[in-house]
Each structure stands twice: as C-alpha cells, then as structure tokens.
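quick q for whoever's on today - can somebody do inverse folding on this one?? i tried earlier but teh output was garbage lol. tokens:
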C-alpha cells in the first residue's frame, strides 16, 4: 500500500529546497551531502529519502521550481504591457523582483545546472530558453529594426540578461537605486543605445563554424527522406 502524504508535505518539501539552495551556494553541489541537508532541515536522513531519492533530484526540483516561477512571473508581466518598450521594462522589472530573496537559487542555477544528468539538464535549459524568448521578443517589439537581425538580436538579449542576472554580486536592497530603477536603467541602455551600438559594429561576417552549420542545415533539408517518392 502506498504511503500517504502528510498534509504539510509541500511545505516541508519547499523548506528542504530552501535549505538546499543555501548549502549548495555556500559549499557547492559536490561539497554538499544529503546528510548536511537533513541536518540543516532538522530531519532524519531517512525522512529526506521520503522526499528525494538522490541529491540530483533535490537540485533538479530546486531549479525547476525556481525557473518555473521566473517564467510565470515574466510571462505575466509581458502581457500587461501596452507596447514593446513598456514590455521590455516590465519583464526586466519582473525578473529582478522575482530574484528578491532568491540569490542562493540564482547562484546555484549558474554554477550547478550543468552538473545534472543530461535528461534533467534538457528540461531546465528549455525553461531558460523560454525566458530568453520572452526577452528577445520584447526587444524585437521595442526595436522593430532589430526584429529580423537574428545575429544581433541574440547578443542584445544576452547582454541585457548579463546586466540583470549578475546584479546579485553588487546590488543591495535599500542602498542606492531600487530594483525597479535598476531594471529601467538596464532596459533603457538597450533601448537608447542598441541601434548606435549595432551601427558601430558594422557588417557581421559569419564565422567558419557558423558557415559549416548553415551548409549542414541546407544539406539536411535537401537530402531525400527515406521512402519518399522521387
């Protein structure tokens, strides 16, 4: 007979994830053990295994919860905006606000996602891609001239992420500008300077690897499919 879940199962699970995030951020994923997590949570190691079969599963659930929350918050902010520029500011502000109190989770995402098994990595990277697409679409809507310049749009998007994602290294709530003000400034740098910056770069010449990838894609498209009538 399956074991019945306690009424506070989800509350305890979230507590485990919160403590795990702090430990992973402080000691690294490889430097943290299930025993350490159990002790930090004030539970037995046996009870820990009632919630998670392995440390990998703890990390995966931690990052899945974190990334799903970010995607939901940013998606909600995007649909409230009246135009592209407002949307870019809105999603930037929402992301920074969602990072409030989640510095440990954010650090663990950056440092430890790549340590998970490939199947779990793929799920989490798909969530990361959803975030990137939301921001990329917002930039394209705010700067229509960039919409079809995919070789420019990605660097612009990732540059904005760089400003927002690494804020935890220096940003302190209550000291200096607010999260909203910084989000507006970061989005404003992209909005105000993107076109001039792109002009200063000049024509972008595809790298040798990009040319090979393009040639490979064209070859694959032209290759007959098995069983297809010619």
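ok took a stab at it. sequence:
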């Amino acid at each position: 007979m399956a074991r019945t879940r306690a009424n506070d199962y989800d509350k305890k699970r979230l507590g485990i994830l919160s403590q795990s995030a702090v430990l992973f951020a402080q000691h690294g994923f490889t430097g943290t053990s299930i025993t350490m997590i159990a002790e930090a949570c004030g539970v037995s190691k046996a009870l820990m295994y009632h919630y998670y079969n392995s440390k990998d599963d703890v990390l995966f659930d931690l990052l899945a919860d974190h990334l799903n929350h970010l995607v939901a918050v940013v998606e909600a902010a995007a649909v409230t905006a009246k135009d592209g520029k407002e949307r870019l500011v809105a999603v930037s502000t929402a992301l920074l606000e969602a990072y409030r109190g989640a510095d440990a989770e954010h650090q663990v995402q950056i440092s430890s996602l790549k340590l998970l098994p490939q199947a779990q990595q793929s799920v989490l990277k798909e969530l990361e891609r959803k975030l990137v697409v939301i921001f990329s679409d917002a930039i394209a809507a705010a700067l229509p001239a960039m919409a079809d310049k995919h070789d420019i749009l990605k660097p612009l998007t990732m540059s904005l992420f760089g400003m927002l994602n690494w804020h935890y290294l220096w940003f302190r709530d209550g000291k200096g500008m607010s999260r909203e003000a910084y989000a507006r400034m970061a989005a404003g740098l992209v909005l105000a300077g993107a076109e001039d910056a792109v002009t200063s770069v000049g024509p972008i010449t595809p790298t040798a690897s990009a040319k090979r990838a393009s040639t490979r894609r064209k070859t694959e498209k032209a290759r007959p499919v098995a069983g297809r009538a010619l």
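fwiw The chain is about 70% helix and 0% strand. also Confidence is low (pLDDT under 50) at residues 225-230. so keep that in mind when u check it
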